[in-house]
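To start, one record:
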Amino acid sequence: MDPFLLMMLVILVAVVFEYINGFHDAANAIATVVSTRVLTPRQAIMLAAVTNLIGAFWGTAVAKTIYSGYIDLAGGFQVAQLAIACGLMGGIVWNLITWWFGIPSSSSHALIGGLCGGVLGQTHLTWGRLIWDGTDAAGKSVGLWPKLIKPMVISPFIGFTLGVIFMMLLTIVIVRLTVRPSIVGKVFGKLQLVSAGLMGFSHGSNDAQKTVGIITFALIVGVGAGAFDPAHAPAWAQWLKPTINAKGTVDHVPVWIIVLCAVTMAAGTAAGGWRIIRTMGHKMVKLQPVHGFAAETAAAITITGASELGIPLSTTHVISTSILGVGATKRFDAVKWGLVGRIVWAWVLTIPITLTLGYLFFRACVLLGWAQ
């Protein structure tokens, strides 16, 4: 396949994934503010779309983690591009399935699982870093485990714990001040506008940057494959070409990639995602404005901190467990644990299923003669 067309295909699939990520995870920012009736669904979606857009421009540390090179290119540039495209397709399929059933699964886990499957589909392509351990020249741990997998496993527990702590502290303050319930509702109804905005911002700062990293890596591979050579690419394509440094990567993410991903995610968020919103906002636990404020604040702090450190994690898992933590402080049976069990099963299955899908997509490319 022509290297330029293949690179553009990867970018197109990445944009589709970003759009679906937007409406699939829109519930992360707006489910609680809708369920507490602080905002109408339309108002909440616009708030989430705008704050997602702003958050996507807040640093590129997460993008750098993604494009910094987990895949060995020994199998060839074309194979690497196909592996990325097939991995993204695996994530897209799983996101659409879980959206249809209203299950708040992780787009981040779907992305990682799909990419692993796409890579494993080609026997000549191996991970450039060890998954579970290994150290670089400076003695620092490298690989998928410390940078991607471990944070995604730990972050839900952080979200749950902070949700419990925030709600307990707020309860203590409200009880000691003997504030009337009507005043509590009004005050936290206003404060929840801020916490929902912070949640949307944090979502954009982490999730949008993952696709920024994927597209940046596709461009880096495209340079190596000769995708920008005049024989393959039209003249206008030269402005897409990144500046490669001595390490074979980029010092700065091209601005147009950030703009593309930010606008795409905001557009996807504006499209809604009502099936998942109903699950998170109404079915897991009954929320009031004070609960929504506590859950959103706890999740936003967790996600924004991770974004600053360049750690990609699941915003869905963090806000979901924050809601559970807040709900558990009311009383243990306030949470509909049967529904939570089904959600957790979807979380557990996400990586194995998307890995399988990514693998199958790549093997289909082999059968079609697009890869060896």
Observations:
- Residues 3-367 form one domain.
- The chain has one domain: 3-367.
- The longest helix spans residues 181-225.
